[in-house]
Design a protein that fits this description.
The complex is a heterodimer. Chain A is of the alpha/beta class. Chain A has an eleven-stranded mixed sheet, with helices on both faces. Chain A is built from 16 helices and eleven strands. The model of chain A has no long low-confidence stretch (mean pLDDT about 95). Chain A folds into two domains: about 400 residues, Amidase signature (AS) domain (Amidase signature (AS) enzymes, Alpha-Beta Complex); about 80 residues, no CATH class. In chain A, strand 10 and strand 11 form a beta hairpin. By secondary structure, chain B is mainly α. Chain B has a domain of about 40 residues: Histone, subunit A (Orthogonal Bundle). Chain B starts with 5 loop residues before the first helix and ends in a 12-residue tail after the last strand. Classes of the chains: A alpha/beta, B mainly alpha. The interface between A and B is large, with 76 and 54 residues.
Chain lengths: ~500, ~100
């Protein structure tokens, strides 16, 4: 039986394969067919590994036929942001400087997906080195939002969000440093969670800003995202910042309900400049959570106005350090002709990096420079603590916070490209949770009159993913937004 | 008064081993001037008694046991090298006038 995979939740696919209703190979072929027909217009995939996916699917199908266990994600086709290194499969981080790089090892998160039976369809488009909020900084081609092909999918995990929205795979992995999972999830109308810092291993995740980089999943439903997170979360000795605690029971939490929960509404997250349709949808979602049995309370996160400045100081400093490794010597692009090592480095990097990494390398080098360090980077580390303290104080009063994700719905391709500061300011509601390291989830809570998705963000205390999934699951159970699908592009 | 000028951008790019074309220097100078003006807002925050926060989650950076583990085979480690010579990554001459190259 050929499955109709458009809109089909990942959890249902895994159950279908395990029961023998569908073959994993049939799911893979259905998605490969959709990718071949539709992805020319969307641009979500940088690489499709059709043969590898078929081999993996056939192996799962043989196990099912033999009555063997195939893992919680057995046979489910998934896509990976091209920031996860994959052994033997080209990995570029969306950059020309890594074009042709074939990693000799595998990231922990993707290895765990494979061990759970998931089948890798390919590598997904992204802003170069995860730097961007629109996916227009991909060195290869932009991603188009499946809900309106003239608009951005968000970024930097734009391919990972668009692929789920357009049913080009069952679920995906992305990364979030300042909003790169939650903002594209909001703009594409899917579920994305940035877990607690250290919950998912960074081993084999190409580094942008190490103290802020959070891998996490995208799914069509809250339970899909929970199922993926249960597999990839957990301690990893290969990452020294990995939290030594096992993954929680997120799927169960998503069905627990929220009766008696106390939810905080941060007043700083409802500021002038928010699109009125976004504000109306988010406020309506808060009312729905109240009807589901939660108590809503006003709270304050007083250092919110400094979050974007703090974030860009810390992330550019991290970027300038992490991107120093791309030197044309060991892997990746190397300039054609250089007569000294200095010239080799300078030309290789000048040719290989796009405009946004260059901007962040120069800014990061500037703020770390002797004489400026205390005024900029040192100051930002102190303000970061105040921002984290704001969250800690709020979570002494409430179980979770509920807020918007992006102040606007998806904007038009090209609209913010010429003004990087304007692009950065769109991150106002997403940059603080990674600074504090706390988990935060984005899900769809409505649509604009023109049919663009709007995101609701639930933020929990550190290691409080269960609280986040309770809220998100309860909201989803009472609403139908997650069932709405974009039309396939002609 | 501008916060940053093209000469400073060139100096920083040299520190970062990043060769920029003249038009890139001018564009970056203009963009960074705006961004630096914005991020300077953190300087208004009173942080007199605040400890810097380098990581979101406290951790003690454990070291693993000093045991020989599995490492990449030489050919695997060198497989992505743009230029390789025998068991080494090949680079241009580092010390001037020492022959070789």
């Amino acid at each position: 039986m050929t499955p109709e995979v458009r809109g089909l939740p990942l959890v249902a696919q895994a159950e279908g394969v395990a029961r023998g209703t569908w073959k994993s190979r049939d799911l893979v072929e259905a998605y490969l067919d959709r990718i071949a027909r539709l992805d020319k217009r969307i641009g979500a995939f940088l690489l499709v590994d059709a043969e590898g996916a078929r081999r993996a699917a056939d192996s799962i199908d043989r196990k099912v036929a033999a009555g063997e266990a195939v893992g919680p994600l057995g046979g489910v086709p998934v896509g990976l942001k091209d920031i996860f290194v994959t052994r033997g499969i080209e990995t570029t981080a969306g950059s020309k400087i890594l074009k042709g790089f074939i990693p000799p090892y595998e990231s922990t998160a993707t290895a765990r997906l494979a061990a759970a039976g998931a089948v890798r369809l390919g590598k997904l488009n992204m802003d170069e080195f995860a730097m961007g909020s629109s996916n227009e900084n991909s060195a290869f081609f932009p991603v188009h939002n499946p809900w309106d092909l003239g608009r951005v999918p968000g970024g930097s995990s734009g391919g990972a969000a668009a692929a789920v929205a357009a049913s080009l795979c069952a679920g995906t992995l992305g990364t979030d440093t300042g909003g790169s999972i939650r903002q594209p999830a909001a703009l594409c109308g899917v579920v994305g969670i940035k877990p607690t810092y250290g919950r998912v291993s960074r081993y084999g995740v190409i580094a942008f800003a190490s103290s802020l980089d959070h891998p996490g999943p995208f799914g069509r439903t809250v339970e899909d995202a929970a199922a993926l997170l249960e597999v990839v979360a957990g301690h990893d000795p290969m990452d020294s910042t990995s939290i030594p605690q096992p993954a929680g029971r997120y799927r169960a939490a998503s069905k627990t309900g929220i009766a008696g929960m106390r939810l905080g509404v941060p007043k700083e997250y409802f500021q002038a400049g928010m699109d009125p349709e976004v504000e109306a949808a988010v406020r309506a979602a808060l009312d729905e959570l109240g009807r589901a049995g939660a108590t809503l309370l006003p709270v304050s996160l007083p250092h919110t106005e400094y979050a974007i400045a703090t974030y860009y100081l810390i992330c550019t400093a991290g970027a300038s350090s992490n991107l120093a490794r791309y030197d044309g010597v060991r892997y990746g692009h190397r300039t054609a002709e250089a007569h000294s090592l200095e010239e080799l480095y300078g030309k290789t990097r000048g040719e290989g990096f796009g405009a946004e990494p260059k901007r962040r390398i120069v800014l990061g080098t500037y703020v770390l420079r002797a004489g400026y360090y205390e005024a900029y980077y040192g100051k930002a580390l102190r303000v970061r603590r105040l921002i984290a303290n704001d969250f800690a104080a709020a979570f002494a009063e409430v179980d979770a916070l509920v807020a918007p994700v992006s102040p606007t719905p998806a904007f038009k391709l090209g609209e913010r490209l010429s003004d990087p500061l304007q692009m950065y300011l769109g991150d106002i509601y997403t940059v603080a949770p990674p600074l504090a390291g706390v988990p935060a989830l984005s899900q769809c809570c409505g649509f604009t009159k023109s049919g663009l998705p709007i995101g609701l963000q639930t933020i929990g205390p550190a290691l409080g993913e269960e609280a986040v999934f309770r809220v998100a699951g309860a909201y989803e159970a009472r609403t139908d937004w997650h069932r709405r699908l974009p039309e396939d592009p002609a | 008064m501008p916060r940053i000028n093209p000469q400073e951008v060139r100096e920083i790019a040299t520190l970062a081993r990043l060769r920029l074309a003249d038009d890139e220097v001018l564009r970056l100078t203009h963009e960074l001037d705006g961004i630096l003006g914005y991020i300077a807002t953190v300087q208004a925050v009173d942080t007199a008694d605040v400890e810097p926060m380098t990581h979101a989650v406290p951790f003690d950076c454990p070291t693993r046991g000093d045991e020989v583990g599995q490492s990449l085979a030489l050919d695997e480690a060198l497989a992505n090298a743009p230029r390789r010579r025998e068991s080494s990554f090949e680079v241009p001459r580092i010390v001037p006038g020492t022959g070789g190259g």
